[in-house]
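re: ur question from earlier - yeah i can do the single chain one, its not a big deal. heres the input i used so u can compare w yours
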Amino acid sequence: MRSTVGWAVHKPGSPLTPWRFTRRDLRDDDVAVRIHYCGVCGSDLHAVRHAGPRDTPLVAGHEMTGTVTATGPAVTGLKPGDPVAIGNVVDSCGTCPACSQDRENWCFDFPTLTYGGRDRIDHTLTQGGFSGEYVARETFVHSLPAGLDPAAASPLLCAGVTVYAPLRRWEAGPGKTVGVVGIGGLGHLGIKYAHAMGAHVVALTTSPDKADEARELGAAEAIVTTDPTAMAATQWRFDQILDTVGVPHRLDPYLRSLKLDGTLVTVGAPSQDWQIDPASLRYGEKRLTGSGGNGTRTVRDMLAFSAAHNITADIELLPATEINTALDRLERNDVRYRFVLDMTR
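and the output i got, formated as tokens:
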């Protein structure tokens, strides 16, 4: 067994503290990774503070970049010293229709999550990236392209692919107008990717002070959604709207803003059900769909696209010893736009 130290919660809601635990010995297709950076996601905050009773101790974290330190004998694509990245899925059944399309995040038998899941062989609790080392199957360890800053690239493994995948799926690109709702940890990356894909990007925000920031990120326009006149002028305007907001809100204004056959994609996770007027969905045969994370093929496409267009997250880098400060500030929404922890400090 391989010994490492992680930042663990021992009781939901309590501060994270250092905890020594063991990783499994390498199986034939395993890769051991020294973790250098790990992003802090809203789902991490929920897991350690608000998820209620669960298996503990628990080490969260699922947006990792680091370096390969060892490989199993069947590993062919990676070697010690290679820069790599790991996201929120580390195994799956491998045989269901979703897995057969490299969409392992939708595994019909449910994927093995980076933390809080159960290993498919020994059934032990998976522990995440707020730690010094991770061990995973080669299939779920991604080469990190040269030129991507490993700290600013780590949020791409969750936030990045969460917005990249639906933009690709619904064909954001030249000649398309894409609205991005919410200019935060997800939304700022949505603007960057949609702009790089060639779309005309419009930021939709409740905060007038974010309009200039949105334009710096790549938005051609910014609309304050609390202005009824401005919103009324958007009717029938957008080919696609990417809704990244994680608090309860109505979708009707955005559905009315879609073109005929337009698509509204939700990637945020509000704590309450969405409310819509069915007429706003029927009129114009609009589509309402959702997305979250993605499988190995799309993750690797996203990393290659990010390297080609020099896209990384806008981050605040903190030493791992300040992990509880990062969680406190994230809960107050006090970050522009993602926290990343230096796991070597």
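The domain at 2-158+294-342 is CATH 3.90.180.10 (Quinone Oxidoreductase; Chain A, domain 1). not sure if urs matches, ping me
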